[in-house]
Amino acid sequence: MDVAALVRTRTHHPEAVAEAAARRARRPLVGDSGRLMIVAADHPARGALGVSGRRFAMANRADLLERLCLALSR
């Protein structure tokens, strides 16, 4: 799902994300490789906007969603 579709869904059908998550089959946290990827993201509304010296790295929510989608796709 692209960021624009995610924003539309969250705007018009906010319950759909939780419903989709509830239907999703859970996989083991650690696969055969033994590797685990953790994606940490704080919501900009909580005031955590800076990353590695970039004061407003997470100020743009669409940009934050784009980076999260990319990370999760990997």
What is the percent of helical residues? 40-55%
Mean pLDDT over all positions: 81
Beta-sheet strand percentage? under 5%
Detail the poorly predicted runs. none
Would you report the number of β strands? 0
Report the total helices: 3
Structural class per helix/strand content? mainly alpha
Largest β-sheet summary: none
Number of domains: 1
Return Rg in Å: 15 Å
Along the chain, the helix and strand elements come as: HHH
Quaternary status:
single chain
The end-to-end span amounts to: 14 Å
Summarize the structure.
With 74 residues, the protein is mostly helical.
Structure overview:
The chain is mostly helical. Helix content is 43%, strand content 0%. The chain has 3 helices and no strands. The mean pLDDT is 81.
Topology, please?
Layout (H helix, E strand, L loop, with lengths): L2 H10 L2 H9 L37 H13 L1
